[in-house]
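name: query_chain
kind: protein
chains: 1
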Amino acid sequence: MVLAAVEVVAEEQFNLYAVQATGSPVSPGFVVNGPVAGALGINAGYNALGQGHRANATIGRALRLVLINIGGGRPGDTDRATQGWPGKFTLCFAENEAESPWDPLHVELGYDKQSSTITGFGACGTTAVTDPRSQSAEGILLSLANHMTPNLAGGGQPVVVIAPENAHVIARDGFTKDDVKLFLWEHARLPVTAFSQDAQIAAIKVRRESGRSPYSYATVAAQPGDILVVVAGGAGYHSTIIPTIMARATTRVIR
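structure:
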């Protein structure tokens, strides 16, 4: 498992150099899919993103020790994070496949359901989304969209961790995972003019150089498919947004 995690962050598209050395509070985060999650006791239910399960803590912490001792990512030296965040200690959880109304992440990515995989992403904090009142897919998804942060670069692959209760309401109303991604992408956006004058000038220049409309909306991802949707957690109406920067999500089969 730890070897697979190392292979994930070593992939060129993961962009580990930037993740290791940036001043931003970003660190590798991991979601595990397939039979290995149950075999190792990786938590996918209550408190999946928190404490209480040795496997979750150990896998993420082992990877961090590799990044420090082999990769040289020591705070204030190569690791230039201005403040960092608690996920730099460890962030590893499993998808709650048994409670998901949709195909799990690894199947969506083209792997066999019986395969065991680990997917790494550049996690940059978490945002809790609590909505006890919405009883429809649109209501829940609007709450999620309103808690996502658009960026002028238009990059990133935000990870939307939807609680099973919310996921079942969304699926009941006919939304597929692709529908969820499109809805969030269309609703979690801001006009360029919502940002500071300095940010607007820089963004407009970059957009013109890349052939994009300089005054188009700032979105949470370049395209809907860049949003990762995962079902995890126990009972309740609490979901979580994990913004990402620097890295492209990368998946490896666990041998």
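note: The first helix runs from residue 2 to 10.
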